[in-house]
Amino acid sequence: MIRRLGELWGTSFPAFWLLLAACVYFAVMAARLTVIDVRHHLLPNRIVFPSYAIAGALLLGAAVADTLAGGAAGPAPDGGAPFLGVPALGIVAGGAVLWVFYFILRLVYPPGMGFGDVKLAGVLGLYLGYLGWAHVFAGTFAAFLFGGLWSLGVLAARRGTLKSSIPFGPFMLAGAAAAMFALPA
Questions:
Q1: Distance from C-alpha of 185 to C-alpha of 100, rounded to nearest angstrom
Q2: Which helix or strand (DSSP H or E) is residue 34 part of?
Q3: Cα dihedral sign for 92, 94, 98, 104?
């Protein structure tokens, strides 16, 4: 994401500012949701639902502004946001794919995941879809890796059992952040 911002800085100022606003919003949303989920095992709709509109508008605006500037920043290494040749469609597709994936996980084993995680997955998919499919997969993998490592630590410290529940939202957010900021875009 940092590299993408750098590319947009020199080529499309509107896209740069929209993407920067999306990143700032992600950081604020992630901080608020992490604190709430750790304390209450809850991802409130009053934060998650508006995030679809805010993140969607900012990311779609950045994709459209970059396209109108001639796509001068160039595509991301893995093809970036375009899906079926339409730049903004990758954002929507990323959100839809992650939402469906987490929804299936919820259907398979309902006690294993709350529906708040499913709703949050769609928002994270918007961000990761902006960057490309490699980011969608890496962010999802990182979320499960971080959650699994935390669970192993809890078990090793004898602070919980195999039946203990952990808030998964913070790991989803950390996985998405790791993919957004660690992988080249």
A1: 24
A2: helix 13-40
A3: positive
The single-letter code of the amino acid at 78 is D
Element (H, E) at 12: none
3 state SS of 83: strand
Asked whether the beta carbons of 103 and 85 are under 8 A apart, the reply is no
pTM: 0.91
Q: Which amino acid is at 167?
A: P
Distances (CA, A) of 17 to 9, 10, 22, 105, 164: 8, 12, 9, 36, 43
159 Cα distance to chain centroid = 29
- Give 123-142 pLDDT, tens digit per residue: 999 999 999 999 999 999 99
pLDDT, tens digit, 9 for 90 and up, residues 72-121: 555 544 445 555 566 688 899 999 999 999 999 999 999 989 999 999 99
